[in-house]
Amino acid sequence: MTETIPDISIANTIAEVIKGIKAFDDLEQQHIQETLIWIRSGTPIFRTKKPDIPNKHLVSYFVLFDEKTKKILLVDHKKAELWLPPGGHVEVGEHPRNTVIRECIEELQCKAEFWSEKPIFLTATVTVGLTAGHTDVSLWYVLKGNCNQLYQFDSDEFNTIQWFGFEAIPFEKSDRHMRRFVNKLSTLE
Question: Which of 3, 38, 41, 117 is in the most buried spot, having the most CB atoms within 10 Å?
Answer without folding.
Answer: 38
